[in-house]
Write a structure and sequence with these properties.
The complex is a heterotrimer of chains A (about 290), B (about 400) and C (about 260). By secondary structure, chain A is an all-alpha fold. Chain A has 14 helices and 2 strands, in the order αββααααααααααααα. Chain A has 2 domains: about 1-35, no CATH class; about 50-285, MetI-like fold (Orthogonal Bundle). Chain C has one domain (about 70-260): MetI-like fold (Orthogonal Bundle), CATH 1.10.3720. Classes of the chains: A mainly alpha (about 290), B alpha/beta (about 400), C mainly alpha (about 260). The interface between A and C is large, with 100 and 101 residues.
Chain lengths: ~290, ~400, ~260
């Protein structure tokens, strides 16, 4: 769609200026972080230098395990959340009456209005040795002693993460699914495709933009989590955010910056891999037009 | 809203330091931010950054009536980073007049020109405060909480001794830190996620029981730190600890839900749990207590005027005063200043007989702890980097 | 699609049971705070903690700040997200724009907050409502952007072309043809941004200056002195009000359809 040149200049301003501002506010802090990560730790502040000491300390020390755990937990919990969120979004699209859809979607968002620390805490309450679950199980005679592994364990962490971020994911997937033109589905049936195949070849690919958005929400949420690890994890269970926080606690800014830079770098690398492996048109759908 | 209307975000020195550090020095040398000179009359708002302990229930009326200035209290975290970040990155130098935090952090604050040396002559309540002489005299470890390099920087607002708490119904009476490591309570023990408390208490215990050669639990050499951590890792691998906690709410929860039976924590948590009807005792261990104090410091704001500084001194003096002390003792369970119990008793219109008795009781309790002694908490040991690395090792084990 | 009636009903029941179970898990953590909010009710009155909310000056001020920032973010973030999506469409370099817009997601919250604070310091911007809003907008923007992209992905540009051919200019075509179709996504982005802003704690704590938001206030209370019952009461109240609003929305939607 080609438009007159004069219009294009106004585009540049209207679209460009805000974007430049945003880019500045995003890239500025990132550059600062990068810069600090190579500075020298001097006393309690920093002094300009170029040293990779902080990176060395991070990548060859005990903290590396935290990075590995963060990735593992984030990937696993995102997969679990997708497996739960997708069917829910699917059901809402197909089974819930149109009039009630909006209310239904909000219903999933309501728990977010409670501070996430309080929510995580509530799980600690429910899963504790004297909490609801153990008490119920004992009352029902299913166990004699409270289950220790319910809390301060991987199980608790995953439960906390999934219940915290899964609802985030329902909305984008629903958006995508509800945008699927029903006629495409009908065409597929008329061509004799059984329902599973229709789903696999028509519905699912068209819902990919939403799935991608949902996956990012979930991954980023789990990866950057600080409260769940402290409240539901066991002794010394740390995720990346905790490692950064505790480096800051001793005013080791270069180390904290180094950890952040490594994390950001790895995520960017993932993004690039994704760019290579997937056709971005799958994400953008019709945004780019019929070109 | 009570927002401080004062101005430049950083002293020129700070901006140049940061700016030069990023190679933008020259260009920024001339920047002043937004400068709006303030009228120097009463009716100003003083902003105090506090970690949650120094808030007298929101009631600053006595100060406001006496001086005509208002007080705005902002909550900040207690970790060194939270404090320094707020001051350096968060614009705190121009926003805060006073910060009230657990002492022992003077070194980073002074080295970064963030707090001012105090002229104690300007604080009438300082002279009568016997605790300062008794517990925080120069050349004693207590001095670390209000001073640095022989100069006074802070006003002691709170004094306390820490040990640990236990549920007597589950454990019987306990009188030693050994309980934290006793296999009898395996899986029912919680520690604080802080090497200057949990770590130092463990060191105190190991030294007393002869299990380790530690000269000074308050400032350990790297090998000594390693020994302590090795001990703790051994216990961790045996499943001794249920969790390391990192917030007030979490610790209280662990007690009231009986998730653990022995917990390294602060005394106010015991008060809260007891108020809720639970039977929990704060131990009197034979090895002694972890002693500490909170200090209120004046934030270094070069643009502050003389009149504003005078107002700030007035606030500090108020915080050394008997009413404030009694109120804080009542609300938080810490010892404050010597005049507090007497004041509470002498003013039945402000403090009921019950409250006055409680203030006296708490003060007596803490004084007994100081008498027994123990080890002064050291928030910034000489080898703090080693402490940090070793603690990370403990957490990762 | 033809199916046996009973099988269909059984499947329905199963599906609804599944949904119910998920909702149970999601709402379970809301129960303990509700219980805590009634602490001491037996002795001092049923809603004593709820009344206490309004007597907490600092909490009230924090609430006002949170609402003000939330509203601003809900307006600004979707607008910026639309601009960015439009830029993707106009300039045809989706990868670069998407990468930049998504960047804040990849940085741990505390580092981003600290670095942004330092940036403001260097630029001479002192902490204020605006700095808090800026930090919140930057955090909500990637989410809003992804949502807008998602909804635009199913919007066929043929409608726009039709509008251009009928003589509408770019802005008019957008407002009258595209916006109505992507409205759900944009509103969703606004609601998302509001929720994200309301929940934001770590980044805010560095640039807050003298102000508190509800979350930073809760965070510091939680860390140092413990949460008092009236804070739980506030949260329960928010949930109850929101649920009531949702019921209202459901009622309106139902009436409109069956009218």
């Amino acid at each position: 769609m080609r438009l007159p040149g004069r219009v294009r200049l106004s585009h540049l301003l209207v679209l460009g200026l805000p974007l430049l501002l945003i880019a500045g506010l995003i890239l500025g802090p990132l550059l600062i972080t990068l810069a600090i990560s190579v500075f020298e730790k001097k006393g309690f502040w920093i002094s300009p230098a170029f040293t990779l000491d902080s990176y060395r300390l991070f990548l060859t020390g005990v903290r590396l395990e935290v990075l590995e755990r963060s990735f593992r937990v984030a990937f696993a919990s995102t997969a679990i959340m997708l497996l739960i969120a997708y069917p829910i979004a699917y059901v809402i699209t197909l089974r819930v009456r149109a009039e009630l859809t909006r209310a239904f979607l909000f219903l999933f968002a309501v728990p977010f209005l409670v501070n996430y620390i309080v929510r995580t805490f509530a799980w600690a309450d429910i899963l504790s040795r004297t909490g609801f679950v153990n008490a119920a199980l004992i009352r029902l005679g299913l166990i004699d002693q409270p289950l220790d592994w319910l809390l301060f364990s991987d199980f608790a962490v995953y439960l906390g993460l999934v219940t915290a971020y899964m609802p985030f994911m329902i909305f984008p997937i629903w958006l995508s699914l509800s945008g699927v033109d029903r006629r495409l589905l009908e065409a597929s049936w008329m061509l004799g495709e059984p329902p599973l195949a229709t789903f696999r070849r028509v519905t699912f690919p068209l819902s990919l933009p939403g799935v991608f958005a949902a996956a990012i929400f979930g991954f980023v949420g789990s990866f950057g989590e600080v409260a769940v690890s402290l409240i539901l994890g066991g002794t010394g269970y740390q995720l990346l955010g905790n490692a950064v926080a505790s480096a800051l606690d001793v005013l080791n800014y270069p180390l904290a910056a180094a950890i952040s830079t490594v994390a950001t770098g790895l995520m960017l690398a993932l993004l690039i891999v994704w760019y290579r492996l997937f056709d971005i048109r799958l994400l953008l759908g019709k945004i780019m037009g019929r070109a | 809203m009570n927002e401080n209307r004062r101005v430049p975000p950083l002293s020129r020195r700070q901006v140049l330091r940061a700016g030069a550090a990023l190679g933008i020095g020259a260009g920024l040398a001339g920047r002043h931010g937004l400068l709006i000179p303030q009228a120097l009359a009463a009716g100003r708002t003083l902003t105090i950054a506090d970690v949650g302990v120094g808030d007298p229930g929101g009631d600053w009326s006595r100060f406001e009536q006496a001086t005509g200035n208002e007080v705005n209290l902002v909550s900040i975290g207690n970790a060194p980073s939270a404090v320094v970040n707020q001051l350096i990155a968060g614009g705190g130098q121009s926003t805060f007049d006073v910060i009230n935090i657990v002492g022992g952090m003077q070194k980073p604050l002074v080295d970064n020109d963030l707090i001012l040396e105090l002229d104690t002559g300007r604080l009438p309540n300082w002279q009568g405060n016997s605790y300062i002489e008794q517990y925080l005299a120069p050349a004693t470890p207590g001095f670390q909480f209000i001073g640095y390099e022989d100069k006074i920087y802070g006003v002691p607002t709170v004094l306390q001794g820490d040990s640990f708490a236990y549920l007597p119904q589950e454990t019987g009476e306990l009188d030693s830190y050994a309980a934290l490591f006793d296999p009898k309570f395996k899986g029912f023990v919680a520690l604080e996620d802080n090497y200057t408390t949990a770590g130092q208490k463990t060191a105190l215990f190991l030294k007393h029981s002869g299990q380790a050669e530690i000269e000074d639990p308050a400032d350990m050499a790297p090998e000594e730190v390693k020994t302590v951590i090795d001990f703790m890792i051994e216990k961790k691998k045996a499943g001794q600890f249920r969790v390391v906690w990192s917030s007030f709410e979490q610790a209280v929860n662990l007690i009231t839900s009986k998730e653990v039976h022995v917990i390294d924590c602060w005394e106010p948590m015991v008060f809260v749990a007891r108020d809720q009807g639970h039977d929990v005792v704060y131990a009197a261990p034979k090895e002694g207590y972890l002693l500490w104090a909170m200090g209120a410091y004046v934030v270094d704001n070069p643009e502050r005027s003389e009149a504003e500084l005078a107002d700030t001194y007035a606030l500090l003096d108020f915080m050394l005063g008997p009413w404030y002390g009694a109120k804080i003792t009542l609300l938080r369970g810490y010892m404050t200043n010597p005049a507090a119990p007497g004041y509470a008793k002498a003013h039945p219109d402000e403090f009921s007989a019950e409250e006055a008795a409680r203030v006296a009781e708490i003060t007596d309790g803490v004084q007994r702890k100081f008498e027994q002694g123990g080890t002064w908490q050291n928030r910034w040991p000489t080898h703090v980097d080693v402490y940090e690395e070793e603690w990370q090792r403990f957490k990762a084990a | 699609m033809p199916r046996a009636a009973t099988a269909s009903r059984a499947t329905s029941a199963l599906i609804w049971a599944g949904l119910g179970l998920v909702l149970l898990f999601l709402y379970a953590p809301l129960v303990p705070p509700a219980i805590h909010s009634f602490e001491g009710a037996a002795t001092a009155g049923f809603f004593r903690n709820y009344a206490a909310i309004f007597h907490d000056e600092r909490l009230m001020r924090a609430l006002r700040t949170s609402l003000a920032v939330g509203l601003l973010v809900a307006l600004i973030a979707p607008a910026l997200a639309l601009l960015a999506a439009e830029a993707v469409r106009t300039w045809r370099m989706p990868r670069l724009i998407i990468a930049i817009m998504l960047l804040p997601l990849f940085v741990p919250g505390i580092s981003m907050g600290l670095a942004t604070g330092l940036l403001f310091q260097i630029l001479g911007i002192k902490p204020s409502l605006l700095t808090i809003t800026a930090v919140h907008v930057l955090w909500a923007l990637p989410f809003a952007f992804l949502i807008v992209l998602t909804v635009m992905a199913s919007f066929d540009q043929v409608y726009l072309e039709a509008a251009y051919m009928s003589g509408a200019n770019r802005v008019r075509a957008f407002l009258e043809v595209e916006l109505p179709q992507i409205r759900q996504g944009v509103v969703g982005a606004a609601v998302f941004s509001l929720i994200i802003s309301f929940n934001e704690t770590i980044r805010t704590s560095v640039v807050q200056g003298g102000r508190n938001t509800v979350q930073t206030y809760l965070w510091s209370q939680y860390q140092q002195v413990g949460l008092s019952p009236h804070l739980f009461a506030l949260m329960t109240l928010i949930i109850v009000i929101t649920l009531a609003l949702i019921a209202l929305v459901a009622l309106i939607d139902w009436r409109r359809r069956t009218a």
